[in-house]
Design brief:
The structure holds two protein chains of two kinds. By secondary structure, chain A is of the alpha/beta class. Chain A has a domain at about 300-345. Chain A contains 14 helices and eleven strands. Chain A has helices at about 5-10, 25-30, 60-70, 90-95, 105-115, 135-145, 160-170, 180-185, 195-200, 210-220, 245-250, 300-305, 315, 335-345; strands at about 15-20, 45, 75, 100-105, 120-130, 150-160, 175-180, 205, 230, 255-260, 265-275. Chain A has a six-stranded mixed sheet, sandwiched between helices. Chain A has a five-stranded parallel sheet with strand order 2-1-7-8-9. In chain A, helix 1 crosses helix 10 (about 210-220) and helix 2 (about 25-30) packs parallel to helix 14 (about 335-345). In chain A, about 55% of the residues are buried. Chain B has one domain: SH3 type barrels. Chain B is elongated. Chain B is mainly beta. The N and C termini of chain B lie far apart (about 40 Å). The chains are: A alpha/beta, B mainly beta. The interface between A and B is large, with 49 and 32 residues.
């Protein structure tokens, strides 16, 4: 990277600038690479709701736990999900009380599991953003091809562009977005053009190395006030995204209102199985409102960029830790609180 | 779980999966979202290949930023 760019970012002395990232991998990379120490104090890097596990509503966890207590049912999840607190504890807590659950690396693993135990019902905790949803479409195709009827999905799939629109209207002042690199692989960089133009904000699609992020910040600073999008991650992101993946999403899913942890219900921000595939649904449509969770937890404000982890009494009081997380943002490696905790970042 | 990891395809199977090598660790991933060939570098997320990486597209940042300075 050009030394002049590093110097510019470190010595920037213009008006304060707020830059938000909405990808958990960017949140982790910014902490890992020490990006905050490499830019001026006038450049504020704000973590938004980009960690799919963190944004999962409490009501969704409660429903997974209910399902896990049914005798002939196994709830199948990716690893992080078992530690997310619902209103009455987490799936991990429920495991100690007789819940049936399994963790997998890939939806493919669940197909094997379900084929080996046809007498059991398997419910997959299908969370994630546009990045993950195509894997669920492939899973459904395989289930139909194999004529398997003992697998259903409890979906909590979130869409990035509606929440960005919500953040621009209801979040903190934002002067530019580091657009989510992996979501963009599927949606394409063009997906951010409408928001860029609507709010006159620059969006930089970026990769995950330190120099990628610094380059994005530099481009955003230079583009402040301009409604435009740049793709700084062209080795993986195309303007149109992954067209096959987008077609599969369109085939199986439709948009609907979705609950985001602590942020409320955002119109059109979720994906739900279409009516013709509702036989694979485990009750996702009824989960578009959140339920209560630990009242002291500030996950909602932290996800919306309105508070830092250090503002949370549970974080600063040492009651919320990776070993004993009180909120979702402390569970995932990509969570803002987790990253702040392990890196001891002062913001 | 937003993480996607780059790896190299070492075998393409008949059942819409491919074997991907991550620095010596191999994983069978779903390949139905892309057309993959052996030796392709791919991004894998949640057990699914989400894109074939195109190294030829590496950016000339210097050129891009030169344009910024001219604006």
């Amino acid at each position: 990277m050009d030394a002049d760019i590093r110097t510019f970012l470190k010595e920037y002395d213009g008006p304060d600038v707020n830059i938000m990232e909405v990808c958990g991998s960017h949140t982790a990379a910014i902490a890992r690479e020490g990006i905050r120490s490499m830019v001026s104090d006038k450049i504020h890097l704000i973590a938004g709701p980009g960690c799919p596990v963190c944004v999962t509503a409490s009501a969704y966890i409660d429903r997974l736990i209910e399902l896990s207590y049914i005798d002939d049912t196994t709830v199948v999840t990716f690893g992080d999900m078992i530690r997310i607190p619902g209103s009455r504890g987490s799936l991990r807590d429920a495991a100690g009380r007789g819940a049936h659950m399994a963790m997998v690396y890939s939806p493919l693993d669940m197909i094997e599991m379900a084929a080996e135990s046809p007498e059991r019902e398997f419910v997959f905790a299908a969370v994630g953003f546009e990045t993950t949803a195509p894997a669920y479409a492939l899973l459904l195709e395989q289930l139909m091809a194999k004529k398997m009827t003992n697998v259903r999905l409890l979906t909590a799939v979130k869409l990035m562009t509606p929440v960005i629109d919500w953040l621009c209207r209801k979040g903190p002042r934002i002067d530019g977005f580091i657009a989510p690199g992996h979501v963009s692989v599927i949606t394409g960089s063009d997906a951010f053009v409408p928001a860029a133009e609507k709010f006159s904000l620059p969006f930089a699609v970026a990769g995950f190395e330190g120099e990628d992020i610094l380059s994005a910040i530099y481009w955003l600073l230079k583009s402040k006030g301009k409604g435009r999008v740049v793709n700084l991650y062209p080795e993986a992101v195309k303007p149109e995204g992954n067209v096959i993946a987008r077609e599969k999403l369109e085939k199986f899913f439709e948009a609907g209102n979705a609950a985001w942890r602590g942020m409320g219900t955002i119109d059109g921000s979720g994906l739900y199985l279409r009516e013709e595939f509702s036989g694979f649904d485990a009750g996702s449509r009824g989960l578009d409102r959140d339920s209560k969770y630990n009242e002291a937890c500030m996950c909602g404000k932290i996800l919306a960029g309105r508070a830092e982890p250090a503002d949370c009494p549970l974080f600063k009081g040492g009651k919320c830790t990776p070993q004993d997380p009180q909120g979702a943002c402390m569970v995932s490696f990509e969570g803002n609180c987790y990253q702040s905790y392990i890196n001891g970042e002062q913001r | 779980m937003c993480v996607a990891i780059p790896g190299r395809v070492i075998k393409v199977n008949d059942d819409a999966t491919a074997v991907v090598d991550f620095d010596g660790n191999t994983v069978t991933a779903m390949s139905g979202l892309t057309t993959v060939r052996p030796d392709d570098y791919v991004l894998v997320h949640a057990g699914c290949i989400i894109q074939v990486m195109n190294k030829k597209e590496a950016l000339e940042l210097k050129d891009l930023f030169s344009e910024l300075e001219d604006m």
